[in-house]
Amino acid sequence: MSSDNMKFLGLDIGSSATKGVLIEDGRILKRIIRPSTPNMQTAAAMMAREIDAPDAAIITTGYGRELFDGRTDTVSEITALGMGINAVFPGVRTVIDMGGQDSKVALLNNGKVVDFTMNDRCAAGTGRFLEVMSRVLDVPIEHFDEEAKSTTELQPITSTCTVFAESEVVGLMSRNVAIPKILRGLLAGIAQRVAALAGQVGVVEPIAATGGPMHSQAVVDALSEALGTRVRAAPHPQTVTALGAALVGIKRSGRALPRVQWD
Amino acid sequence: MATPGKRLKRLIAGQMLASRGLKTLGRPVAWVTSGAPVEPLLALGVIPFYPENHSAICAAKGMGAPLCQQAESMRYSRDLCSYFRVDLGSQVTGQSPFGVIPAPDLVVASNNICGTVQNWFRIIAQRHGVPFLFVDTPYSDNPPTRAEVEYVQTQLQELTQKVAGLTGRKFKESDLVRVEKNSLEALKLWAEILHFGAEKPAYFTSFDAFVYMYPIVTLRGTRWAVWFYKKLLQDIKDRRRHGQQSVPGERARVVWDNIAMWPVHKGLRKFFMQHNIALVTDTYTDAWRSDHLDPAKPFESMALSYTDIILNHGPMFRVNKLIAMVRDFKADGFILHSNRSCKRWSLGAYAVKKMVTKATGVPGLVIDGDMADPRAVSLDNIKHRLEPFFEMLTDE
Fold first, then answer.
1. Which CATH architecture has domain A91-233?
2. Which of A226, A238, A256, B30 could form a disulfide with A195 if both were Cys (CB 3.0 to 4.6 A apart)?
């Protein structure tokens, strides 16, 4: 179908952040990330107001996808993630998404999700883990890269549980172990857990990564190391799922999927 | 006309009333495992009671957590089977949806379904101070050998003599043959009923089977089970004649592996219905589809029937069973319930998933849960995985 100026808004209402991508005929009109506070419902409503596209079809995804009354339709994060990453990196076979509350791995074939897995009942492989450790180490996540780069040494963190890892880190700090060493150990640990999760579906190259933590090159490097192969972080990694939700809306409306200008 | 659900409720009430009444009249009661050879007991007039099914009903009624906690307070680990913990909790507190349960005069267990029951039923026997009888069925990846069948057959004959001796009742082979004919008739009716899930669209689903399996387990060998399944079969045929498929607007078909998730059974069923997904068959209720029984060879066929069952075989048996089910029931996908309580059934879930997908080309999903302990099942987490899975199956 040819261009009909129909706008589609993908809203990814996550546990930590709400992400919105407004698309029209393959062009990204808006791409916004806001904290999911004070609650997911309000955050979604505020974002829809901010994006201000009253004619757009709104497709929600993420933990809070059922909470926004103004939605046209909903889709699961896995399907949206698969759709989004295939638009960003056509032909990608594995995508790893590290969210605030869970980590997901999806296997794609010809742009379709054919298998997936998620972590369960544990925050130790998620963005939340990094947030907790950032606070304990007193290193903002934005500074992870420069801290990690300052050493080649690594202090292994043996605890897999976020709470126990926190006490382990506190113990190491009290023994004056250098913060960059601890940070590298934490990143290696989280990457190994996500790599083990990916092993459940069987990793096929090329591999892409999305989610807030992928803003940090140190996290991406740790993932590549754990998987023993190159992982490419998507540009604007936190909004790929929101893009996918918008694309699902386009597909469900019977329109042809546009080529997306994402960079 | 009574619905099958109402008939089942009345049947269970009648069964419990009769059990209590007969017990007061002096008839012996045996608490048995779900895979215990019940036919010789019935032939001797012994009344069976099934703690596993009782635990399932307790769990479906929302009693799982407090009863498990009772057992845990007695220092039984939370890692143990939740059917066991619910049963022990119920015995200690006296809480049961059935009211009063007739106490056992003996206990009969077999390890054909798991090793846990061997200890669990020994604990029951000790608590009640009654004899513990046990049938050992060799675990194998392959169909039972001649020697294995003979080994079990000898034990079944000994068991029959022991029970006759303990209860003072006289054994007649003609009674055993009569009971086996009843078992066989009910098993065949059950198989015919389950096959309605293979029709596209389905006219019977595993969510129905999970509920209506109760008589095939606990009333096997009686005319009651035969009566119930004849009626149920007629109901299903009537529904099909009127075009009332199980899941209106059926969009995809799924096979289930492992025991039901009783604490979230209703919520799960609703979720499948909302998404127009039919759960067409499962390895759980299929375990009572066995057709090995042959009243012409009562002990030998019983030995084979009670040895050659899914839980007495390794994961490869499960793989092959699931492959056959996906094909026969025209399924678009399959779900493996990684059941915290049932290690034997959950063993190798991810390997099983890969092998079944490789052979059938349809996707699988592993979901964590438990059959009776609600603290180990999260319906929200499960829905969070099922939704993308359903989207995959419906070609999103």
1. 2-Layer Sandwich (3.30)
2. A226
- From the list A114, A118, A200, the residue facing B363 with the nearest CB is A114
ipTM over 0.90: no
B293-337 residue pLDDT tens = 999 999 999 999 999 999 999 999 999 999 999 999 999 999 999
Residue A121, chain B, CB below 8 Å: the answer is: yes
A and B: number of Cβ contacts within 8 A: 37
Dihedrals phi, psi of A118, to nearest 5 degrees = -140, 155
Report chain B residues touching chain A, CB-CB < 8 A. Answer: 350, 354, 357, 363, 366, 368, 378, 381, 384-385, 387-389, 391-392, 396
CB pair distance less than 8 Å for B396 and A115: no
User: Looking at the DSSP assignment, which residues form a beta bridge with residue A118?
Assistant: A104
Q: Are B302 and B155 in contact (CB under 8 A)?
A: no
Query: Tell me: the pLDDT tens digits for A72-102?
Result: 999 999 999 999 999 999 999 999 999 888 8
Q: Which domain range does residue B100 map to?
A: 4-152
Q: Does A231 touch chain B (CB under 8 A)?
A: no
Contact criterion met (CB below 8 Å) for B31 and B192 = no
Average pLDDT, integer, range B213-218: 97
CATH number, position B137 = 3.40.50.11890
Contact A88, A208 (CB under 8 A): yes
